[in-house]
Design goal:
CATH architecture of the largest domain: Orthogonal Bundle
Shape: globular
Strand content: under 5%
Structural class: mainly alpha
CATH topology of the largest domain: hpI Integrase, Chain A
Number of strands: 5
Protein name: Phage integrase/site-specific recombinase
GO molecular function: DNA binding
Keywords: DNA integration, DNA recombination, DNA-binding
Distance between the termini: 62 Å
Strand order of the largest sheet: 1-2-3
Length: 342
């Protein structure tokens, strides 16, 4: 490894570009995009500090960046850890290409998280999901919103998996869907080919899916000539459209008519016509929160962890740490139910 005098000058933007090019074949598009977004802040800081050559970076400089990043984004410990973990990987890459001094990555410090901070608690609860789906079934039966949320809740599949489904992936006679990894046609799965699997459906879920396909679904193809399960007038539904619809549907005022936060519904910023306004509701949740809630619901109904792990395509250790939102009281009472029969 080079010492301080053997470094080769390189500007921040060139180093970031080289890093992203290297990672392009190693990580998913979503992960690469996230890394690019985090490194945009690093480049912004370099501009503010007049750093045109990464050779000048030091442990003190990296500490200054950490403080700046926390302040400029008002970040929680969890968010700051994510940011700094990416920076550490980037600096380690820079060491390999003789852009920064040896072992500088060891000076990139991430916050230590308590057990309670290390996983997110936001979920769509079973009670909330039931209320939303009952309302949709009554007033918007087999609509895009009804079919989408029903499938996300009943299967726990990821946003990208739902978006990537084609009509041919739905097997009505066998009551199941098949998930395919098709990165070359813009519908990858989170875990690549290892995420490919069959997912069983309940009969009443199939009824809604079939009615959506036969009576409501816009008859559109995507840019690759495939027939998506979820379409709009432009073709395959976008990730953004799925996310925004879930945020809208999970605002409490949508399915209860009341605001639990004491806001005036008529003037609430989360009800503006702007497409991103729904996420401003403190109670609205993302598609991943629906997945987290679905997994928690399955576990609460005594479905074995191995079954949930296979169905949702998530390792049992990750499932337990990041998805299972049952309280300790719920867990002990479920265990009691087994023990009482012994």
């Amino acid at each position: 490894m080079p010492d301080q005098h053997d470094l080769e000058p390189i500007d921040p933007s060139t180093a970031v570009e080289m890093y992203l090019q290297e990672r392009e074949t190693e990580v998913s598009k979503a992960t690469l995009k996230a890394h690019g977004y985090r490194l945009d802040y690093f480049q912004r800081w370099c501009d503010e500090q007049d750093i045109e050559n990464l050779n000048v970076l030091s442990g003190r400089r990296m500490h200054q960046y950490r403080l700046w990043r926390r302040e400029v984004g008002n970040l929680s410990n969890v968010s700051l850890k994510t940011q700094m973990d990416t920076i550490r990987v980037f600096i380690r890459f820079c060491e390999r290409i003789d852009a920064v001094r040896n072992n500088l990555c060891e000076s990139v410090v991430s916050p230590s998280l308590s057990p309670n901070e290390d996983h997110k608690k936001t979920i769509l609860t079973n009670e909330e999901a039931t209320k939303i789906l009952n309302r949709l079934e009554r007033f918007q039966y087999a609509s895009f919103q009804h079919t989408l949320l029903l499938l996300l809740w009943r299967t726990g599949i990821r946003l990208g998996a739902a978006r990537g489904l084609d009509l041919q992936d739905y097997d009505e006679p066998q009551a199941r869907i098949r998930l395919h990894h098709r990165p070359e046609q813009d519908t990858p799965l989170k875990n690549g080919s290892e995420g490919e699997r069959l997912v069983a459906l309940r009969p009443d879920t199939c009824e809604v899916l079939t009615d959506w396909i036969e009576n409501v679904r816009p008859d559109m193809s995507d840019d690759y000539g495939r027939e998506p399960l979820f379409t709009t007038s432009q073709g395959r539904v976008s990730r953004t459209a799925i996310r925004e619809n879930v945020y809208r549907l999970t605002r409490p005022c949508e399915y209860t008519g009341e605001c639990p936060h004491g806001r005036e519904v008529a003037t609430c910023e989360a009800l503006d016509d702007h497409r991103k306004s729904a996420s401003k509701c403190p109670s609205s949740v993302s598609p991943h929160d629906v997945r987290r809630g679905s997994i928690t619901h399955f576990l609460s109904r005594d479905v074995p962890e191995k079954v949930v792990s296979d169905r949702m395509n998530v390792g049992q250790q990750v499932l337990s740490k990041h998805y299972d939102q049952r309280t300790e009281e719920q867990k002990v009472e479920q265990r009691r139910g087994y023990l009482n029969n012994i």
